[in-house]
Structures are given as structure tokens and as C-alpha cells.
Amino acid sequence: MPQLRIPAVYMRGGSSKGVFFHARDLPPAGPARDALLLRVIGSPDPYGKQIDGMGGATSSTSKVVVITPSCRPDCDVDYLFGAPAIEAPVIDWSGNCGNLSAAVGPFAISEGLVEAPRDGLATVRIWQANLGKRILAHVPMVNGEVQEEGDFRFDGVAFPAAEVVLDFLDPTGTDGSVLPSGQLVDELDVPGLGRLPVTLLNAGNPTVFAYAESFGLSGTETQAQVNGDAALLERLEAVRATGAVAMGLARTAVQATVERPHTPKLCLIAPPQTYQVAGGKQVPAEAIDVIARMISMGKLHHAIPGTGAVAVAVAAALPGTLVNQLTGDLGGRQVRMGHTAGTVVVGAQAREIDGSWQVEKASMSRSARRLMEGWVRVPAEIR
């Protein structure tokens, strides 16, 4: 039988890549759609390479996005993000990808879903369907088309491009809570590791913050050093999964590992230090406020997820969190964080009202580019 042909666009957003679809071209949400998207991306692959699919064999490049016109009066498009596992037949729909959020506005404009000015900035109002939150994407336009080329550089991406500014509005948990436990610092009792101080945060994506030193790390380790240490990754997953239970996101740690690998994220933090990233670039200690290393889908991220950067910025704005204990009071300025590939700056506006913290928005800059457009093909038996 001939293969199925499904319209799709392959896009880079920030330091991630994913396959973008119109919802109208896919089956309804459910097992059939998941099976099709897994086959598109090349999962599950016991070899861990996704050779027979569009995935790139890393958490940053194994992603799918489903877009539909929004029925909400305050939004233009609905954006649903899926994180396919590489070796397991699972797509985690529980969270967002902050990096690919930068590609949603350009996709919506180029696909004719949103009207935009001929020149200047187009503001695309996005409903992030996974989290039930709004994002404003400010997309540059030139001669009636999305501007993709530019001089904006982002560590983790080799080439410059046009800047897309993102405002994550009220980026806290779906119930409005920033601190799901109500505490700025908790202690997790992790089997085999004992009690560890952590901050549990709902912002961007649910995130568990822990000191790198709790695992005998400096925070400046490379991807190869972390991802090549199976015992270390197992300990890190134990903390993440235990945190998921403490945040009410999973009934058991086993369920968190098997069914919810995308969220919560685990962020290892450390005080500013001078270190070197891939390609030889040196990050001086005085250029950053905190080191943040994000574990995503079981591995150390090659840069930092956009939602992870939002979580770090929000945590830095709340006096007493582990992150804030390292950054100190920043006086309202943006947080300069050192990550695996370099640095990034993100700002968050938070205030305490009647004893609870509220976050108005978090803002960051990314870039996006359409890499390929046409059809993806999958075997007909997937139908």
C-alpha cells in the first residue's frame, strides 16, 4: 500500500526542532493520533537513533506540535505540544516547550491563520493548550512575510536569526499556584539518597530545583559527563520522580518515570563559576547570576528549555527559594543564567498578595526558522 502523506512543516524554535501540523490533518486526540505521530518522529526506537523518522534522537529534536485556530476571543491559535519518548511508545502531553513557542507565531502567520502587518511587529496571541495559559509572540514582518534572517544570537543555536520576543502571561500552575507545597524550600525523602533540599515550582513547566552539589557535581559538567553516567542519571530521575509525587503530578515515582517523562523538569543549580562550553566559549563567573542545568526527558539538555528558563527567572524572583538564595535580590532586573551551551537572560515579574505569590508574566527572546515544508510520510498501516 502507498504511504500516507500528511501536510507538515519542520521548524526550529529557539534551541529545539519539531514537526508542526494543522489539527485538521490529524486524527482526533487519542491513541490513533499518538501512534501516527510516534511513527512520524521515529519512535519507539530501541537503538535510540530515530533513524526511520523525523526525530533527532535527543529531547530537543524529538517534538511534535499541533496547531488549530482558537475559539477563544482573546487568542488567535491554540498550540498543543507533544514530547515523544525516543525508546518508548509514549508521547507526554503534560507540558509546554518554551523554545518551540517561538515558532508558533511564525507558523500561524505563514500558514494564513493570523493576519499580520506588512512591516513591523505582528503580535500573535497563543493559547498554550497543554497548560491552559496565554503567550504573546511578537514576530517581525518584512514585505508581508515573516522575517527569519537577522543578527539575534542565542547560545545553543549556531546561526543568527531574527528575534522573536515571547511574553508568558501568568505562567504559573493551572490552579494559579506558584509553590504547589506552599513552601519556598521542601525536603524530599528520596529512596537511596536520603533527604534533599529542593524548591518545587509551578511556572513555565513544573520544575524541581536542587543543588548540583547534592549529587557531588559542580554544575559545570558537560553533556557527555552527565549523560554518559548511567548511575548519575538514575539518581537524578529518582529525585525528579519523587518531586512529581510531592507536586501531585503522579501517584507514584514509577508512574512519573513511565508516563510523565517530560514534566516536571529537574533543574540543577550552582553559584556562578567560570566554565567553558562546547566550541570553546568561556562563560565568566561575573557574567551570570546562577548556573542552571536542566534535565529533560532523562538527559542533560544541550542548552536550556525555554520553560526551564522561565522557571529559573520566577524562582529567582521569590525570596527564599534555592535559586533566590544563590542569586540574591536582583532589584527587579532580568536573571543572567549560565547553561550547558552558554548564557541566557530572562525576566519575571512577581508580587506577593495576601501571603501568596503571583507572577504577572515572564519574558524572553528566541528565534525561529522554517526548515522544511511539504508532507511527512508514514506506512499506511498506521491509519
From TrEMBL:
Swiss-Prot/TrEMBL keywords: Isomerase
Signal peptide stretch: none
Name of one Pfam family that matches: PrpF
Ubl conjugation listed as a keyword: no
InterPro entries: PrpF, PrpF-like
SUPFAM superfamilies in alphabetical order: Diaminopimelate epimerase-like
Glycoprotein found in the keyword field: no
Listed GO MF terms: isomerase activity
A biological process from GO: propionate catabolic process, 2-methylcitrate cycle
PANTHER family attached to this UniProt entry: ACONITATE ISOMERASE-RELATED, DUF453 DOMAIN PROTEIN (AFU_ORTHOLOGUE AFUA_6G00360)
Protein family membership: Belongs to the PrpF family.
Protein name: 3-methylitaconate isomerase
Organism the protein comes from: Pseudomonas oryzihabitans
